Amino acid sequence: MLLYALVAVLFVGFVIRHLSLRSKLPKGTKWLPGPKGVPGIGRVWDIPRAHSYKRFKQWADQFGPIYQINVFGVNHVWVSTDKIATDLLVKRGAIYSDRPPINQLENSKTAPEYLPLLGYNDVWKRQRKFVTQIMSRSARSAHQNLPLHESYQFLAELLKDPQRYEKLMEDYTGRVISRLAFGDVSVHPEVAIHSHGLLKAISPGAHLTNIIPALKRLPAFISPWKKEERARHTYERGFFLQMHKLVSGKVETGTALSSYMKTFLEKKDDTGMDDMEGAYVVGMSGLAGVLTTASALMTYILAMCLYPQWQTKLQAEIDSVCGDRMPEPSDSPQMPVLRAVIKEIMRWRPITPSSIPHESTEDDIYEGYFIPKGTHVHPSQWAITRDEDMYPDPEVFNPSRWLEAKYPSYQEPLTQYPNIRNFTTFGYGRRICQGMDLVEAEFFVGIGGMAWAANISKKRDALGREIAVPAHDYTSLLISRPKPFQFDLKPRTEKREQQVWDNYFAAQRQEAMSSATGGMMAGIRDPGFALEKTVFSPGEPIAAAA
Ligand code: HEM
């Protein structure tokens, strides 16, 4: 009975909100086109929980590159070209940089916790400033070698056990970010656990609260969502605090490795943040860096199964530029094909296809259309990367579109372009992703390394027939990835396999030596990692070096 009364009150609330929104159209302006709905709930029944971005793209095809839709009393604007997204979110960034609330979380806009989810307020400003500083410091420092260092272990593990690719990719990106954030590689499994927890909490498709905002007002004792969120949050908070304590202890004894947390502790007075906020902003950087980057590595395998000609072209470039060795970041200007494959992966299968919405803080008029304050603006990555004027035959994985002048997306010089910086899939304006430099380095050696080391192809069944690989069977959380599929991954040659292992053992030796001298890699050995070589006898290169 209580529940029915609540639902009735909420419904009336929606209708009133809907009608008051409709009545405020300024003179001489019009509403954006869009699918019509029922007062109060809008068009909610027509939005699927899985892959809703495909429905939003269909509506873009019908109503144009900018349209609006009401969902539970909130005005949503969907943008499907890079130009309109830039006009609104970059050029008018002063009024389009707020975030909508995430209803599953408590106070996501104001609590000094998750930087990407904060409103456009002073908490966001100080956190963003701090992250800009640590990211640019770390990009300039020796930390940029970490992806290369970690890629050696990643490739060795992948050759040994390719079907564990999802876990191995998360391990790779998790190790890099755990070293950067905490100077401690051993915590990467826990960083991954918290990344999955937060991803589920903020994904529209995972919790009804994120679709029906009013459910947030249900008292805790009848809300399973609140119970789940409190448990998740307490667990995560404990981890961030534990990392803060651990690094503080090491700073005091002079044994802390360089890390975002160490920088925070040293510069705390300048940051305007207290310990809890500092622990969160560092921890959040860690969580942002695991699942996003790993998703694109998974798409690389899928793309190579479906478009093997690009593996051949990529390997030809690698062999001609690098000879026998693995690609390294300094090879980048000579490797446009590798950069084009990376960029095409991000275009073909955007990692956050539904996009991360901005919220407007003032009424606005765009080309005669009225966009009221409080509108949730979605720069639809799925649609923008399928804009046929910019990307002809958008469903085809075609890195040539970045390499040949006949394509609209082509840019010169090829020593510099294509690159992924500021690409639509990293968002827009004042809220653009802060991890782009790191991601670029991780992709270059992670994807370049896979192409250098291994041949990927469709798997064959016992009768020698190829097992089909679905071109788009992706998960439906905010960060999307291909659902597990079967493939074959084999070393390109025996010699290459040997080199993968040699690189791996050399990296281990470097860590051991660095550890002994207290250098940058000191203490970064992963205590949980015990990789055994399958083809060559384990430990051989280490013994040879000793
Ligand atoms: C391929 C990997 C990644 C993708 C596709 C990605 C994508 C995005 C997107 C779409 C946004 C929202 C932008 C907007 O609102 O307009 C964002 C924000 C953010 N990203 Fe990334 N990201 C990636 C990796 C990373 C990494 C590795 C880090 C850090 C180590 C990171 C840190 C952040 C932060 C801190 C924000 C919040 C910025 C703000 O709200 O002011 N991201 N990212």
UniProtKB/TrEMBL annotation:
The chain crosses the membrane at residues 278-303. InterPro entries: Cyt_P450, Cyt_P450_E_grp-I, Cyt_P450_sf, Cytochrome_P450_fung. Keywords: Iron, Membrane, Metal-binding, Oxidoreductase, Transmembrane, Transmembrane helix. CDD domains: CYP64-like. Pfam families: p450. Belongs to the cytochrome P450 family. This is Cytochrome P450. It comes from Cryomyces antarcticus.
